[in-house]
Automatic annotation (TrEMBL):
Protein name: Presequence protease, mitochondrial
Compositionally biased spans, kind Basic and acidic residues: 16-33, 45-61
GO terms under biological process: protein processing
Lineage: Eukaryota, Metazoa, Ecdysozoa, Arthropoda, Crustacea
PANTHER family linked to this entry: PRESEQUENCE PROTEASE, PRESEQUENCE PROTEASE, MITOCHONDRIAL
Stretches assigned to the Peptidase M16 N-terminal domain: 208-289
Organism: Notodromas monacha
Amino acid sequence: MDRNNRQFYNRQHFHQASEHENCRSHNPHDPRRAACSRCSAHVTQNERVRRFTREKRDQRQRALHQQHEQAQSLRDRSAIAARATRSIPILLRVTADESEESSTLDSSSTSRSSSSMSDVLSKRSKRKRRSAHKSRSGIRGRLDVHKVVRQYPVGAQFHGFTVQRSELVTELDLAAILLKHDDTGCKYLHLARNDTDNVFATLFRTIPEDSTGAPHILEHYVLNGSEKYPIRDALLKMMTRSVYSFMNAFTADDFTLYPFSTTNAKDFKNLQSVYLDGIFRPLLKELDFMQEGWRLEPLKPDDPSNSEYVLKGIVLNEMKGVYSDSFGVMRRKTKMALYPSGPYGHEAGGDPLKIPDLSWEGTKSFYKRNYHPSNAKLFSYGDMPLKDHLEFMKHYLNKFQNKKVPAPRTITEEPRWTEPRELTVYYQENPQSKEGNKAAVAVTYALTPIKNDFENFSLKILSELLVAGPNAPFYKCLQESHLGTGMLSFSGYEGLGNEPYFLIGKFE
Ligand SMILES: [Zn+2]
Ligand SMILES: [Zn+2]
């Protein structure tokens, strides 16, 4: 991007320099430059860099200022709220005074009682004010991770969850609490850490049964109207209403993930509500399926009987885009060819040619089989209290109480081959791509199944050391071989579920 900018700048500069006589000098202090009105906007490279850093600094300052203002306005608002609560006892006292006037019999006792009542009320409102201030400003005290571990001992129960493990991770200064939902078996991992950026994520194991893209379509589909939020594009709509720091949804080869993060407690609750309502109580309307998945649409909507029909749909279009990237196709087809018998032999995102095989009913039944808490994992991170999250989850998990838990879905191990196989994949030429329309060669090894997360993680690091960067041995040796020009960006270790593979390749 930087390079492009510079080129753009140079071009512009050259153009302007040839246009103007008086502004050939690059010295910003040259009076001739200042005199030229059109070139006062034209700056030298150094000036540009300086201006860029200045702008960045100003931006940061503006953001900080805004944050400050926001905090201030929140404080103001809580002050107004406090004033409002304070006015209540005054009003009450007016009524008490009136009664005092009307009942002249024992005025002393009423006045005493009224004052004591207002005292109690003002005390209560003070307490309310304090708590209102605390929640409104969103300021949370420093979290003590040691205390969290003591708060959630193994075996303790909270809102239908039982603590299974509770450990302190001193290296990262966090407390890790693993819980299990008693009724559904849903696992919940919470990492308590003194970090205001709080994360919440819901994960489902969505093992594809074919290449029609049911997991991917559902990922779009569930966030398009739920019982509480019957609106389209819930995430998009939240983007303008939320102060999120992250918000998205992903479909991977064997799972679907719904993560978000925010620093504000109220915002956290809102996002959690939108996500969980979509995930656990979606409407799954047929029209939305046609919108998100696929549909046939006449090219001439006014005259459908004499019109040609085209396939349309958000996921279909997205996957068409994915499949127009030549190396992307290579990576996907390699993975599928390496594990042909199991779920990794399918395209979880949906093969554009297979997506139209998926029906609305098929998608709903895939939802029923997979979007069950027993097939889900929940995750949260940050300094917000775990108990609140668990209580919130209770409302969504309650409806699964005393209901049949579907059989856990497992992935069978791919039988290992006795000899290597060769695969040739063709892709459609992309006229817009300058670099993509090239041939590429890769060698891929299926590794032994790895069930240990730590081993998986370590191998990923080892792979980075072996493959990535100019000093990596694989990179060096392949570059020096002068076979092809560049290394495939997805070279290296890929921990695909429990079926990892190692790929190394170059393009011409
Ligand atoms: Zn100029
Ligand atoms: Zn998508």
